[in-house]
Amino acid sequence: MVAVGSMTSHVARLYALAAGVLVFFVTWAGVAAHPWQTRAATAQDPRLAALQVREQRLRAESLAVKRIVDRRWAVYRAHLALRRHEIAAINAVNAKARASSLVSAPAAASSGGAAAPPVRVVTLPPLTITRTS
Amino acid sequence: MERHSFPAMGTQVELFLDTSPSAESRSAFDSAQREFERLEALLSRFRPDSELSALNRRGALDAGPELAEVVRLALEARDRTAGLFDPTVHDALVSAGYDRTFDEIDPDGRSGTPRRCGGGIRIDGMRIELERDVHLDLGGIGKGYAVDRVARMLVGVGPCLVNAGGDLVCYGRPWPVGVDTAEGQLTLELDRGAIATSGRDRRRWRRDGAEAHHLIDPSTGAPAGGDLLRVTVVANTAVEAEVQAKAVFLGAPASGPAVLVTNDGRTIFAGGLV
After folding, report:
1. Intra-chain end-to-end CA distance of chain B, in Å
2. Distance (Å, whole) CA B105 – CA A42
3. How far apart, in whole angstroms, are the C-alpha atoms of residue B246 and residue B269?
4. Alpha carbons within 13 A on the beta-carbon side of B8
5. Chain B: closest CA distance from residue A67 (Å)
């Protein structure tokens, strides 16, 4: 009597299952590696590279412009502060003048068409001289 | 009495304050000097970076308040004097040889042909527009404007006198001011107001063997002739005195106190002045 190997051996089934799982994962890894893509396709798009270069250049330029603007803004602020100080000083002087009788003279003088101011000939030595300007 | 002097606008500026020396008076003098320098930087035709030079180059400008104000005053003066005072004498002055600051004028240069004056100026708010080939000289009236402004600054500190090479304003007390006449010197005293002197006795040079000077007759576009050597006028403001002095020199009647010196050595008093 001939002994016939049984195809329902548990050991054989386990080997077959393990081999199947191994084949499945090897196939998966192979597909995931995209072996069909060309080298050109994997290289970076030159337009993208140019855009990146341009972006870097623009960033550098914007920083330089910002530095210039900041510097000019500081100068402007300094000049503005000086002018405000001068205007405040003039306003203070004018306010003080308004409070005194002195201001009546320039106020009258600034009105157009007013009669000429009174003037007289004296024998005093002059404090200053008017000459052809 | 405190005195402060410095060069500005092609002349020597003198400031007087009838006060005791103090930090306030020193600060007022410093502010006054800075104001002169600031206005000169705006109104000088000899500075290529001035607002006036920019206007003359471009023919139109959105001007700052000072330039707009001085141009407006000059236009009013031109109307009031029927064109005897004219800010458009720039090209005539250059043609006559006054093409650089007075100290730098070439004594042996050649003169050009007289240039027309009376060109169009349009001012709308702060916008100034010049007719084609019209350029402005605001030398005299700009100095008067500066003197008036600085005097208004100083008067709050005390009685003051500002003299910018002949354009003079005083306030607050009687001030004795010397005026050159044919016979010597006369002293006028005024409590408030302005004096200006215009003439051909200074700021003159030679061109092609003939004498030239800075007072242009707008009707000819050449240095003015006539019988007068020098005119001194009293008015309420330095701007008004400057305008009247030029107009009287060119033949207008004196509307206020004035001292006229003729070429033949006579002194004439006008406008109620003895």
Report:
1. 29
2. 77
3. 16
4. 28
5. 26
Q: What is the DSSP letter of A112?
A: T
Q: Find chain B residues with C-beta within 8 A of A105's C-beta.
A: 155, 171-172, 191-192
ipTM: 0.80
B201 interface with A at CB cutoff 8 Å? yes
- Whether the CB-CB separation of B2 and B25 falls below 8 Å is answered with yes
Calpha distance B210→B110 (Å, rounded): 10
Quick check: A89 and B236 CB within 8 A? no
What whole-number distance in Å separates Cα of residue B256 and Cα of residue B234? 6
* A–B interface: beta-carbon pairs under 8 A: 154
Helix axes B65-80, B23-43, angle to 10 degrees: 70
Chain B touched by A38 (CB under 8 Å):
no
Query: Distance, in angstroms, between A79 CA and closest chain B CA?
Result: 12
Cα-trace Rg, chain A: 49
Report the predicted TM-score, pTM, of the whole model to 2 decimal places: 0.71
Domains of chain B from N-terminus onward: 2-270 (3.10.520.10)
Q: Domain extents for chain A?
A: 68-103
Q: What tokens appear for B259 in the block?
A: 């001292």
3-state secondary structure of B247: helix
CB count within 10 Å of CB B43 equals 26
Bridging pattern class, strands B175-180 and A128-130: parallel
CA B249 to chain CA centroid, nearest Å = 13
Average pLDDT of the segment spanning B211-223: 80
Asked if A102 lies within 8 A of B155 by C-beta distance, the reply is: yes
Task: Quickly tell me which residue has 């009236």 as its tokens.
Answer: B141
The amino acid present at B115, given as its one-letter code, is: R
pLDDT in tens, A58-113: 999 999 999 999 999 998 988 888 888 888 888 877 777 666 654 444 444 444 45
* Minimum Cα–Cα distance from B143: chain A residue: A133
